[in-house]
Specification:
The chain is α+β, with helices and mostly antiparallel strands. It is 23% helix and 29% strand. The protein has a 5-stranded antiparallel β-sheet, with helices on both faces.
Length: 164
Amino acid sequence: MMAEPGSNETTAEPAEIAELVAEFLAGGTAGTQVERTIEWVDTDAAGHQHNSVIMRFVEAAEARLFRKAGLNSYFAIAPRVRHEADFRAKLYFGQDVTTAVRVDAVGSSSMSFSFRVWGHPFKERGVVLAAEGKFVTVCVPHGAESSAPWPEEIRSHLASTAAT
């Protein structure tokens, strides 16, 4: 199944990636995945993905997680206070990619996440783990200068949900 030109949908994901994603998401309290294709704008002069595209894909998965839960209030109060990424393999123009994000822990005012980005089989290569890492967000209510406890709506949802 091919995606329409210009869409963010990719071809069907290989079973191997589905297994890797399921195993990864099982380690968290909540999680989700997104599929994208590396576009020309996502590459650098070396011909592979620019490091910033990994963070865009991670943020897209994070946004999907909270939108699907109806927790749109999260976005305005959750700045990142820590980010780390290990780049493991190159991704190329036209290559399909799956990004998975999971919530590892929810503290009173912080939330820890992990992510992995896999490149689908492409040309002569099989599935590759392209990047993995972690990030932390902190609840900072609108107008506040410091952290505060997560709203009950967010805490209770994350406590009751399983990775999807």
